[in-house]
Design a protein that fits this description.
- The complex is a heterodimer of chains A (about 260) and B (about 300).
- Chain A has 10 helices and 10 strands.
- With about 260 residues, chain A is α/β, with parallel strands linked by helices.
- Chain A has a single domain, classed as P-loop containing nucleotide triphosphate hydrolases (Rossmann fold), CATH 3.40.50.
- Chain A has a 6-stranded mixed β-sheet with strand order 6-7-8-3-9-10, with helices on both faces. A 4-stranded antiparallel β-sheet of chain A has the order 2-1-4-5, with helices on one face.
- In chain A, helix 4 crosses helix 5 and helix 5 crosses helix 6.
- Chain A is globular.
- The two termini of chain A are about 35 Å apart.
- Chain B is α/β, with parallel strands linked by helices and about 300 residues long.
- In chain B, a hairpin with a 4-residue loop joins strand 8 and strand 9.
- The chains are: A alpha/beta (about 260), B alpha/beta (about 300).
- Chain A: GO terms for molecular function: ATP binding; ATP hydrolysis activity.
- Chain A: Belongs to the ABC transporter superfamily.
Chain lengths: ~260, ~300
């Protein structure tokens, strides 16, 4: 890990009228680091993620990202064209519902190849070879390349979405409940796959989840949110094994034991 | 037809014509960009060329010579009606000769005879947005045009190759105009795409229902999108036209009987008639049914 952060978030707040989405959030994210944001429904996790991923304009505060040339740029001072370019090259966004992140009516190969074509790749054979390679890496059989995601199971769709995001070798991935709605055995395989990819590619990731087990498996560091505020932050194992804030203690003790 | 109906010249009122002309000027200034305009109700249903008719009405003058084609033919319903309409409301001279016309309104074809400087080709456009079937949100497609995000257009071509082994889009084949805007050339066969490139004629596109006008000024670069390993190709026909013997023109299949007999003839009727008048392929046109039923003989 480098000692220069990849993302610097300062005093970030988002208000919906007089209601608080998230307030005064500040943190830094380093290359290769996986940060989990946990908390109950309505705690502002998704609002925070959307503000970071330029899907929602924050009310105040700044988000600075270290570009490939080493310069820090404030995301909300960039032009929209630059932001969108960043979004489809250097970043990825994995939605909870794969239908939101995939084009359901075009084939799996085209879904994976879209980002390549968007950055100017114009060689069909090469695009297809790259798509085949990525389908293999997310454990989708090569003979499914021309099938539409409609014909895929939930777990396959989620893996396809991940492949579609990783094809341009991004440095930062946002994930919103990546295992939501999947049964436990499929969840386990997906988590295993994600863990492998993140460590192989040296990806930084921000994972929003309400599932503490997912956070424990995937993340290095953890932020606990409640009512739009960060109540505790620290290394994942420390937070889960020795929670300091009363709310975190409540959250950790609420985990159902099987 | 000699008595001019009590309409303003060319049907539309002068304010409307000014509004359309302003849209046309903007469209010419930004080649390939879709300019919104306040499309009017026309005395014909949407989908029958209301956009093209409005553009023609805005640019036509008393000295113009109008030609109207529908799928290349001068004698089909749509072409005949629109021609009669302009005779009635503007009393302009009309023709079927491509070379004589100053304005050619067209549906789904570009004439085979190369257009000249000073001529204007007016296209009737049903769906001006090339990204429509890939991205249904108009707010999003406009943003994609603005930011030049055209990766999605290639997704469609990719799908074609993945499914059919080649680019199977045969009409409304997307083009890039002057290296900037991706444009739908209206449902012309892709056979006609190369004719748009560096054409000396002015090309105007009107979409009445969708309320958009766009243009290709004379001598503008028009490139059909493709892949490096699957380059753009136009349709080819194995046989020449059964009436005029032309090779390398766009052919329509005409069904002759209910036993499966058919023949291929030029879709551009003016081009075909000119060639027949010059004495090409006469022996075939004398009895096309027999010629098609007996292709070996026809080839001789």
């Amino acid at each position: 890990m480098s000692d220069i952060p990849l993302l610097k978030v300062k005093a970030l707040s988002k208000f919906y009228g007089s209601r608080i989405g998230c307030q005064n959030v500040a943190f830094e994210l380093w290359p290769g680091e996986v940060l989990a944001v946990v908390g109950e429904s309505g705690s502002g996790k998704t609002t925070l993620l959307d503000c970071l991923a330029t899907r929602l304009a924050p009310s105040t505060g700044s988000v600075e990202y270290r570009m490939r040339d080493g310069q820090f740029r404030d995301l909300y001072r960039m032009s929209e064209a630059e932001r969108r370019f960043l979004m489809r090259t250097d970043w990825g966004f994995v939605h909870q519902n794969p239908a939101d992140g995939l084009r359901m009516s075009v084939s799996a190969g085209a879904n994976v190849g879209e980002r390549l074509m968007a950055v100017g790749d114009r060689h069909y054979g090469k695009i297809r070879a790259t798509a085949t390679d990525w389908l293999g890496r997310v454990e989708i059989a090569a003979d499914r390349i021309d099938d539409q995601p409609r014909a895929f199971s939930g777990g396959m769709r989620q893996r396809l979405q991940i492949a579609r995001n990783l094809v341009t070798n991004p440095r930062l991935i946002f994930m919103d409940e990546p295992t939501g709605g999947l049964d436990v055995s499929v969840q386990a395989r997906l988590l295993d796959l994600l863990r492998g990819l993140v460590s192989d590619l040296g990806l930084a990731a921000i994972v929003v989840t309400h599932d503490l087990a997912v956070a424990r498996l995937l993340s290095h560091r953890m932020m606990v949110m409640k009512d739009g505020h960060i109540v505790e932050t620290g290394l994942t194992d420390r937070v889960l094994d020795d929670p300091q804030a009363p709310y975190t203690q409540l959250l950790v003790s609420s985990i159902l034991q099987v | 037809m000699t008595e001019l109906a009590t309409y303003n010249f060319a049907y539309l009122d002068e304010q409307t014509k000014r509004m359309i002309r302003r849209a046309i000027l903007k469209a010419i200034a930004i080649p390939g960009y879709q300019v919104p305009f306040a499309s009017r109700e026309m005395p014909m249903p949407y989908g029958w060329g209301t956009g093209g008719v409005q553009v023609t009405a805005a640019v036509i003058g008393p000295n113009d010579m109008l030609k109207v084609i529908d799928q290349g033919a001068d004698d089909t319903t749509n072409a005949v009606s629109i021609r009669a309409f302009f005779q009635k409301v503007s009393n302009v001279r009309v023709t079927t000769k491509t070379t004589e016309a100053t304005i050619i309104q067209t549906r789904h074809r570009i004439p085979e005879t190369a257009l000249q400087a000073g001529q204007t080709l007016v296209y009737q456009v049903p769906i001006p947005e090339p990204l429509r079937f890939l991205e249904p949100r108009e707010t999003e497609t406009r943003k994609m045009h603005a930011l030049e995000e055209y990766g999605l257009m290639h997704v469609k071509l990719y799908e074609d190759i993945a499914r059919h082994g080649r680019i199977a889009t045969t009409y409304a084949y997307p083009v890039k105009v002057e290296g900037r805007y991706v444009m739908d050339p209206s449902p012309t066969p892709k056979f006609d795409n190369p004719k748009m490139h560096q054409s000396p004629a002015l090309q105007l596109f009107g979409a009445g229902r969708e309320k958009r006008i766009y243009a290709i000024p004379p001598y503008t670069e028009v490139v059909s999108l493709d892949f490096e390993d699957h380059p753009f190709e136009i349709q080819t026909f194995s046989e020449p036209c059964a009436l005029c013997g032309a090779k390398g023109s766009y052919l329509d299949e005409v069904i002759l009987d209910d036993k499966g007999g058919s023949m291929f003839v030029c879709s551009d009727t003016d081009f075909c008639e000119d060639r027949q008048a010059e004495g090409n392929g006469d022996h075939l046109s004398a009895n096309p049914a027999q010629a098609a039923a007996n292709p070996a003989e026809a080839a001789e």
